[in-house]
């Protein structure tokens, strides 16, 4: 498969996507990956589990593009027809792929469950296909060529790639199996760096580098915003004419302009950056969470190897728990209330004492939708950090729904640790 | 516009969607609305701000469907070309729509801003179009017919509907202006129910009702799987011939076959169901989390009003915390280890004691990727529930990556509470 891919399209199969029951996050993920591989994608399509419409769409898409990436419809059930339909479009028959069957059988053995007959279907793959193992489920993926003659190009062939629908299976398969193949097939080579910022809004960040964005050619700068943080992707297009390093000077300029707001140049998340800093400084941490109710701890536990620095947390959702387990005085709770500077400070100190960690961080606030007052509106959150020297409290006024307020509060808690360790 | 609409498709325009920078929530929203209006939609397409590719796509879509709903590209800037391109496809010229211009001008007056010349473009609409006012922004929407002859139907015409891209403008326009028109054009009315199951795999669940799925006509049954649970959507098509309730008997049959595996008929998540049960039985709950490190508590805190039953949690990531805060004996930790039946039981009991709740649930396991042994492999999780009568421990062998193992463990913890309250 050494042919260059000029363009790609993404075809997501599933009635649940078509009906709007499941949000299509796969298309965006794949588009982003293709873009950083240097493969332009011009179209995304969602279509239901209907074999005749799917067949027609695969044929049409194969004529329009050099690469068609399909997701979904690889499950064991009757309406999972993508593999069969794509094989039909390519004029290939399905044959048993023994290593895939072995994998599926061992999957069920490990679960102590009986494999049902219809799971065997997932090991039936198009003749001559490159097979992608599924590290997170049963359905293997596949890649194979499909003749798709057009008037302009009577010898046109497209590559069909079939990936499973669940993002937890699709993403590792993309990274582990497909990406290495596509790297050699991109029309040119792109080199990207990711500059992650926190504590500054997207439009403020964009305004600060308006001149750079307007003047961009190569490298390019693309801003992305997500809840509570933002990111610039800077991308240099490398071909025979330009192989000098144009990224480093641009990143240096961004560092000059944003200083402390940059928490990472690379791919680590904010909790990963904080965990690495804690490890390096040999510090332990614990959390006392009220409105985030375990979210900060859970972000920590998402990271393999967190146990070297992360000891644990007390989720004090109820005020009784704040009193009993964190030793917050009833006087504070009565006078200032649970959402207050003094309560946040007492929670952090009580947590540090109870957990015996170098650092403890507390979060208490009003996540909504109810419970806000004029004085303490929904979105008001106090975050405190306590170490052997002092206790410091910050406040934030979160906007948006309950989930957003809690997530942004959790990120701000990590940022507070980061700044204290700088 | 009294013609019946047999099928629809959704065409979202915008390079930011195509590149994956913006998540496409419009397609799902419109699909859901169409579905409840009884208009089948067979395809969703995302395409960039490229007029020639867009023109080609509109023509192709108009041939395939009776209704094409476009979103995006109605803004004032140079690359907002959807209205012009759709008018071209329909062979209509753009003419000034004075009420829209008046609205745009008053919008800017209200903001105390000067209207820029290019905003006038937004009042240029296809001749003869039905115009939809924008209650939340400047760009009006439009609906008009587009000749799209096919071999089968030489007189075929499709309706093109153009809506703005920002969801805050698109949604009210859909509800206020488009829905009343589409109601009269739907071929039939659909009624759906959602049956949620846990503790049974997708293929086993489907095997158990293979006969129902194969015999389905009206109502239909569609299975969906997600991490650790699965769901059936049952849908009745209601027209003049069939207005009897066909859903209830089918749901009763599903209840007979799946009994305890069904946790919800409706739209509540498993944590929501459990919280409602706790409220109804006036029980309080707390958690002792090791490998899930706050995820169970966080799921609880996601729900507004959780505080009535959810007191708090102890995240005992480190064994010292298990000993000190949960009173797990060092003998258990040394002999059986932290991932063991006895440790899970001791954690639940210690938590219930410390938190003084009616029920306490503990989770301890090996989420990986490292830390597994032959005897205790990655994925092994113990979950214990303790109340005033007894303590019960279950084990699971989770598959997949760290995140999946932890999520499925968290769901199983909720299911254990649910079963204890049945």
Q: What can you see in these coordinates?
A:
- The structure is a homodimer of 422-residue chains.
- Chain A is an alpha/beta fold and 422 residues long.
- The first copy, chain A, folds into 3 domains: 8-183, 3-Layer(aba) Sandwich (Molybdenum Cofactor Biosythetic Enzyme, Chain A), CATH 3.40.980.10; 189-265, Alpha-Beta Plaits, CATH 3.30.70.2860; 278-421, Alpha-Beta Complex (Maf protein), CATH 3.90.950.
- Chain A is 38% helix and 25% strand.
- Chain A has helices at 15-18, 26-37, 51-64, 82-90, 98-111, 167-183, 202-208, 210-215, 247-258, 270-280, 295-301, 319-326, 330-335, 341-355, 402-421, and strands at residues 8-13, 41-47, 67-71, 94-96, 124-126, 130-132, 141-147, 157-163, 189-198, 220-226, 229-238, 262-265, 285-289, 310-316, 359-365, 380-386, 391-397.
- In chain A, the strands form 4 sheets. The first copy, chain A, has a 6-stranded mixed beta sheet with strand order 2-1-3-8-7-6, sandwiched between helices.
- In chain A, strand 16 and strand 17 (391-397) form a beta hairpin.
- In chain A, helix 2 runs parallel beside helix 6 and helix 10 runs parallel beside helix 15.
- The first copy, chain A, is globular.
- The model of chain A has no long low-confidence stretch (mean pLDDT 92).
């Amino acid at each position: 498969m050494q042919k260059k891919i000029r363009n790609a399209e993404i075809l997501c199969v599933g009635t649940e996507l078509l009906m709007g029951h499941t949000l299509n996050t796969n298309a965006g993920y794949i588009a982003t990956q293709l873009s950083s591989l240097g493969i332009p994608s011009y179209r995304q399509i969602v279509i239901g589990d209907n074999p005749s419409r799917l067949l027609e769409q695969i044929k049409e898409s194969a004529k329009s593009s050099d690469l068609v990436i399909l997701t979904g419809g690889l499950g064991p059930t009757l309406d999972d027809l993508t593999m069969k339909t794509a094989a039909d479009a390519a004029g290939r028959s399905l044959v048993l792929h023994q290593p895939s069957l072995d994998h599926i059988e061992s999957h069920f053995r490990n679960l102590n469950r009986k494999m049902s007959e219809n799971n065997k279907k997932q090991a039936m793959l198009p003749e001559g296909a490159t097979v992608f193992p599924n590290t997170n489920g049963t359905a293997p993926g596949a890649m194979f060529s499909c003749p798709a003659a057009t008037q302009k190009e009577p010898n046109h062939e497209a590559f069909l790639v079939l990936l499973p629908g669940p993002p937890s299976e699709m993403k590792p398969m993309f990274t582990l199996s497909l990406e290495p193949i596509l790297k050699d097939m991109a029309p040119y080579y792109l080199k990207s760096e990711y500059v992650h910022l926190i504590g500054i809004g997207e439009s403020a960040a964009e305004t600060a580098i308006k001149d750079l964005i307007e003047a961009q050619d190569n490298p390019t700068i693309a801003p992305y915003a997500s809840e509570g943080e933002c990111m610039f992707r800077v991308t240099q297009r490398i071909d025979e004419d330009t192989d000098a390093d144009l990224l480093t000077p641009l990143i240096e300029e961004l560092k000059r302009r944003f200083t402390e707001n940059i928490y990472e140049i690379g791919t680590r998340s904010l909790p990963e950056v904080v965990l690495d800093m804690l490890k390096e400084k040999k510090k332990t941490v614990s959390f006392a969470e009220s409105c985030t109710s375990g979210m900060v701890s859970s972000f920590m536990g998402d990271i393999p190897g967190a146990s070297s620095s992360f000891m644990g947390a007390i989720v004090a959702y109820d005020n009784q728990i704040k009193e009993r387990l964190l030793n917050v005085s009833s006087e504070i709770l009565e006078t200032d209330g649970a959402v207050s500077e003094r309560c946040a400070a007492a929670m952090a100190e009580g947590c540090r004492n109870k957990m015996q960690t170098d650092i403890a961080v507390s979060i208490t606030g009003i996540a909504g939708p109810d419970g806000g007052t004029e004085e303490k509106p929904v979105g008001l959150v106090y975050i405190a950090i306590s170490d052997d020297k002092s206790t410091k409290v910050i406040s934030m006024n979160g906007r948006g729904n309950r989930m957003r307020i809690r997530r942004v509060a959790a990120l701000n808690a990590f940022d507070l640790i980061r700044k204290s360790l700088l």
